[in-house]
Amino acid sequence: MKKKGFTLLEMIIVISIIALLVGIVTPQITKAMKKSKAMADVVTANTIAATIQEMMLEGITFNETTEWKELNDANFFPSGSNLSLSKFIENFSTLKPKMNSNYVFCYIYDSANNKLEIGAGKPGTDGMDLAFRLYPTLDPAYK
User: Fold this and answer.
1) Can you tell me whether residue 82 is helix, strand or coil?
2) If you average pLDDT over residues 91-99, what whole number do you get?
3) In what order do the strands lie in the sheet with 65-70?
4) pLDDT category, 3, cuts 50, 70, 90?
5) Is the confidence at residue 135, as pLDDT, over 70?
6) Using H for helix, E for strand and C for coil, what is the string for 4-16?
7) pLDDT: is 16 or 79 the higher one?
8) Domain that includes residue 78, residue range
9) Buried-most residue among 34, 54, 110, 132 (CB within 10 A)?
């Protein structure tokens, strides 16, 4: 009489095949997740840039900088201003780049050259220690 079921060898082969497939798929999933986080940050940067451009059209003034500065009320608006980025950008106070939890959004604005850039990077004691451009074009090093 023949017993029904799988032999130990058959089980080992099936488990080996599953482990091999997981090993092949995992790096692809990780790569896709990193790319989606970077693209989410690009979309957020485009939204921030569009909002800042609308503010410029409305005549709202803000601080210029030719070096990366963290995008916050203290750096963005002139001192003494009662304006807040939260009035213009929904959930701004909790808005953080998805790529790296230690990063913040930052900006460069040079009105003489009509140059606006939005980026993400690591804040330092005196400005940004590291910054990657997200708007108007994505810095290829932002991975």
Assistant:
1) coil
2) 91
3) 65-70, 104-110, 115-124, 127-135
4) confident
5) yes
6) CCCCHHHHHHHHH
7) 16
8) 33-135
9) 132
